Amino acid sequence: MSEQVPTLETEKEEAQLTDGAERLRERRAFVPRSDIYETADSLVIKCDVPGVDESTLDITLEKSVLTISGYADVPEQGDLSLLYAEYESGDYERRFSLSDQIDQDGIEASVKDGVLTLTLPKAKTAVARKISVNAG
Questions:
Q1: Nearest 5°: phi and psi at 131?
Q2: CA 102, chain centre distance (Å)
Q3: 3-state SS assignment for residue 41
């Protein structure tokens, strides 16, 4: 019997957000690159959102879809002249479809140094446990 592992469906796109949605702002939108880890009792998602902090980050959960939205603005560097940049000002957006094996009320989020960490606890029915065997 195979163990059922909590699942996440992701929308993975390379650089530019092109989901057909109408943009209300004229600036670029990016899909943050993400890594997903599994622990014994949760899934952990780490998303790269350089330049985004807690004041420009919005995370919503509606109908089992977790949506991450944020904005980054490249700060001026005073009297320095920019020669090359890999990061641009723009919006970040990514969606994850959650299975019913995720405890949606227990989701936690934190952002530090341009990395968003989401902890999605497994629902009690999805957590693996050892069943003891009693002699007859």
A1: -110, 120
A2: 14
A3: coil
Task: Measure Cα distances from 127 to 6, 66, 102 in Å.
Answer: 9, 21, 10
Distance, CA of 43 to CA of 45 (rounded, Å): 7
Nearest to 111 by CA among 48, 53, 35, 51: 53
Tell the CATH topology of 30-73+87-124.
Answer: Immunoglobulin-like (2.60.40)
Give per-residue burial for 99-127: e unless 16+ CB within 10 Å, then b.
bebbbeeebebebeeeebebbbbbbeebe
The residue extents of the domains of the chain are 30-73+87-124
- pTM listed for this prediction: 0.73
Q: For residue 27, give the DSSP letter.
A: S
For residue 95, which amino acid is it?
A: R
Round to whole Å and give the CA distance between 107 and 126.
15
The pLDDT tens digits for 73-130 are 877 778 888 788 777 788 999 999 999 999 999 999 999 999 999 999 999 876 777 7
